[in-house]
Amino acid sequence: MDPGGSSVLVAAVTWLEQTLLGMLATTIAVIAVATVGLMMLTGRVNIRHGVTVIFGCFIVFGASAIVAGIESFAGRGDVGAFAYRPETPAPAPPDVAPPEAEAPGGEDPYAGASVPSR
After folding, report:
1. DSSP 8-state code for residue 85
2. Which of 26, 43, 78, 82 is within CB 3.0–4.6 Å of 69 for a Cys-Cys bond?
3. Cα 1 to Cα 101: distance, rounded to the nearest angstrom
4. What's the rounded Cα separation, in Å, for the pair 100 and 1?
């Protein structure tokens, strides 16, 4: 049984997560990366600080995938797209007999095609 009011807290956290990782946050991150990139090109920002901003955006937006990968590596079972799933072997193709080669005959379809006869 859940404690009283827990659904309200879950709903609030879900709303906050969707707000922080939604369209607004994506737009702000794109503007931040573009601004920092432009400032790095003009020499106003140290490259180390610019890379820190870009790397931070990757960590924030990739946090769920990073956590899923760590949990699946730690062996907590099927968690997201990074869970280990053993491959099943592909079924064997049906046995098909190769076509039989025709016996060589006395005919040469290329005889005299490239060398003129004298």
Report:
1. -
2. 82
3. 76
4. 73
